[in-house]
Amino acid sequence: MSDTRIVADRVSKWYGKVVGINDFTVSIGPGVTGLLGPNGAGKSTFIKLLVGALRPSKGKLEVLDQQIWGNRRLLTRIGYCPEHDGIYEDLTGREFVTFMARLAGMSPPEAAERAEAVLEQMGLGKAAHRLLREYSKGMRQRAKLAQALVHDPELLLFDEPLTGCDPLARAQITQMIKTAGQAGKIVIVSSHILHEIESMTSEIVLLYKGQVLAEGNIYRIRDMIDEHPHQIRVECDRPRELGQQLVLSPEIRAVEFPDEGTLVLETHQPDACYPLIPKLALAAGIKIRSLTSPDNNLQAVFEYLTQKRGPQGVARPAGLSPGPSGGEPRARQSAQDGTRGRAA
Amino acid sequence: MGIRDLGYKRYDGKLLPHRSRYRVLIRRALSLAWGSGLMKTTLILGMFPPVICGVYIFLKHQAIQYLARSPQAPLQLDDPGSLVFTCIYWCQIWFAFVISLLAAAPSISEDVRTGAFQFYFARPVSRNHYLVGKVAPAAILVLISAVAPTLLLAVLRVGLSQTSSEAWSSTRWIVGTLAYGPVYALVLTVPPVALSSLGRRSGSLQGVWATVFFVTWLLGEGIAAGTDLPYTALLSIPTCLRLVGQLIYGLPLVYDLPWYLPAAVLAGLVGLSAFVLLRRLNRVEVFS
Amino acid sequence: MTQGTVSGLSAMRQIASMSLRRARRGRMLWLSVAILALMVGSAVVSLVSGRGGLDFFDGMLDLMLRYLAPLVMLLHGASAVSEEVQARTITYLFSRPIPRWSLPMGKFGAAVVLGLVLLLTAAAATYFITMIGEPGALLPELGSLWRGLLAAALAVLLFGALATAFGTMVTGYSFVAALFYLLIVEVGLALAPGWLKVVAMTVHLRVVAGLYHPSTTLYMADPKLDPTISVAVLLTVTLLWLGVALTWVSSSEYRTDK
């Protein structure tokens, strides 16, 4: 991949007997990449390896085409926002960010100017003169993000960046991350909250118990899980009648009726099914209230890959996403309709 | 779907009485303290001086016996039992002080720093349970390190007695140690725990306690020696502890001071510390 | 926008400046001021009681070199790296293009600045106050003051380096570990007879200050020590401790997730 800037080749890190990550092989390029996995999956360990805070026990790790451990020059091009909430409580927000800017190599007037700008950008302009110990959790998080951004680095590493943030701050930070990715920066965001990552990117690295389960576009990953058929959930007024017609189609593998008014199909050919369902419903005069793919999302992908199943033996749907007005749910677009991220 | 269906089991077992919380907290703190390598080193190294003192007591007692049988005028040697006080004050105090630094000075500040109050006080744990759970483990460790070996030395002294009257008079070392031990432990644990409640940086608070302990000792004794003003020695916590110890063991006081003054200073110190501690704990906002 | 790397000296200056700013806002500085104010206060008491003079100054200087200087430097320097690790702020520093050694050196620099200001001021104030009772000896005995100030400055450097080394190597309870070392080596060995006492740096400090009086007993004679050699020993040991700190920090991974 010509624009791959981070390459991990069979990287392992262990702490005594505890394995942090094991045999990690992954390539990451410009744009936003989500590092996804439950607690203890190795997300923070990998990010700390990328920022040179830890040395790999084994394997080769290149960041921006260079070795990172002991390479302080490279740190000029990296911005890191850690997961923990440790911060210099006896400094003001302005002092903290300016200090970090100075340590990144900026001159005093530049550092002061940039610190003001980035604090303003993060909504801390009015609170910049206050001590960090007086900041709320969300404000501290934004101060941490500000210090990561102040020197305009090429590579941004955000470890659980939305922790403690209110919905407004979340929206703001998410937009900032997406904008940074669109500007060509390499942005790696780690989280264990699936919908957070989904709102930022569709390029992910899925981790579990220290290993990479999958890497790439989430829809492509989903497509690749051949042994698990896709599910399509249809809510309509006459589900059994619709089911009777669909079951005759070769694309449909199984049909279920989990509750009144709902029909769940299993298919290996979702692209063929999506146009078929409304066609049959229209012909039979059946009214469809919603048409969604419960497992065309990270939750289901993750559950399939880690083999966690719900009590009905199917992956639990993540739930319907509400429409823009918060009213009737709308059908989620097919993966082919241009909602994918950039090509893997 | 009920919560029980998700595997959350009902608890049908017995709930221990409220007073068992003391034991739970104390045992937990002791096991945490024992997990520290520095604590283990201190406790182990602290065993050596009493052994050396024990050997010295034995040899001195033998020398006294020998000299008593000597045809020449006997050389007057003081009672080897006085080494009991020398051991607890001059030898073990260093180890007891390090234990107070490790176990007492960071006890509450660590909880403040890590936000542990909300875990403690969201349980049926009262502030008294918490207070005892912080002071008692440190006091127990001081007693184990300093008072227990000294008690054994006192028993050794009684055991070396040749006559019943000597044995009876030597029991004062045992009685003295039993009386002095709690004073010693309280003075070395309550003030640092009270200091610990005043901040969240354990390292700084350990520094404060070390400063209060040593600087007052040095300056108090230094000024007293340099200016012949013995009252300035009362500034020093270790000096007051020494004077109270000499009082309890029936030894002559090193400074010409009324007997009640050092006792009053120590009582005031422990009392003030307890007051500060209780006040801080009563004002703590668990979920802040 | 990318910048060049930050030079070690510049990073060290930044860190020292930030540490001094934080020290001014913290309580530890006031504690050190209180300790040394007690020392100056005792000089006032001695003057009032008619016991001032050079002997009292020598006694106070001895106390300072043996106990107060190590304690003050430990208070300010022993949490050099350990505090950053415990507060997890070390992640910000080590994710910047600064050499790792600049962290302990910056902390050392801040501690030395504080230590020099506090201890030299206290020593000089003690001298002038105690010598009020002997005004005729004030100028002729200035040599004692200069030697005392030199010894105090060397004490600041030495114990600052020792505190920095412990603060770098021991990330939990660094103060206690350093205090343990001081009690055993500097206090304990200084009382040992014969050549064993030269291991204790406080002995060399007292040699520089002119306070060392070797004694001769039946069993062992104390060594005669030369001030120039003692200065060299002190500076060498200071550099050794700094070397330990820098080597340790350069190759360590500091985990903040424990």
Summarize the structure.
The complex is a heterotrimer of chains A (344), B (288) and C (258). Chain A contains ten helices and 14 strands.
Question: How would you describe what is shown here?
Answer:
The complex is a heterotrimer of chains A (344), B (288) and C (258). Chain A folds into 2 domains: 6-222, P-loop containing nucleotide triphosphate hydrolases (Rossmann fold, 3-Layer(aba) Sandwich); 226-306, Alpha-Beta Plaits, CATH 3.30.70. Helix content of chain A is 31%, strand content 25%. Chain A is built from 10 helices and 14 strands. Chain A has helices at 43-50, 93-103, 108-121, 137-149, 167-182, 194-200, 218-224, 239-246, 270-284, 298-306, and strands spanning 6-15, 18-28, 31-36, 58-63, 66-67, 78-81, 155-159, 186-191, 203-208, 211-217, 230-236, 252-256, 262-267, 288-292. In chain A, the strands form 3 sheets. A 6-stranded mixed beta sheet of chain A has the order 6-7-8-3-9-10, sandwiched between helices. In chain A, a hairpin with a 5-residue loop joins β12 (252-256) and β13 (262-267). Chain A is elongated. Chain B is mainly alpha-helical and 288 residues long. Chain B has one domain (17-283). Helix content of chain B is 73%, strand content 0%. Chain B is globular and about 95 Å long. The mean pLDDT of chain C is 87. Chain C is built from 10 helices and no strands. Chain C has 258 residues and is mainly α. The A-C interface holds A 15, 44, 51-55, 72-80, 82, 84-91, 95, 99-100, 102-106, 147, 151-154 and C 1-6, 11, 14, 18, 21-22, 25-26, 87-89, 91-99, 253-257.
Characterize the biggest β-sheet of chain B.
Answer: none
Rg of chain C over CA atoms, rounded to whole Å, is: 20 Å
Rg of chain B, rounded, reads 23 Å
Let me know the number of strands of chain C: 0
Compute the average pLDDT of chain C.
87
Main interface: chain pair and counts: A-C, 38 and 30 residues
Indicate the low-confidence ranges of chain C by residue numbers.
none
Shape of chain C: globular
Structural category of chain B: mainly alpha
Assess the beta-strand content of chain B as a share of residues. Answer: under 5%
Q: Overall pLDDT of chain B, averaged? A: 86
Number of domains of chain C: 1
What's the number of extended β-strand segments of chain B? Answer: 0
Helix % of chain B is over 70%
Helicity level of chain C: 55-70%
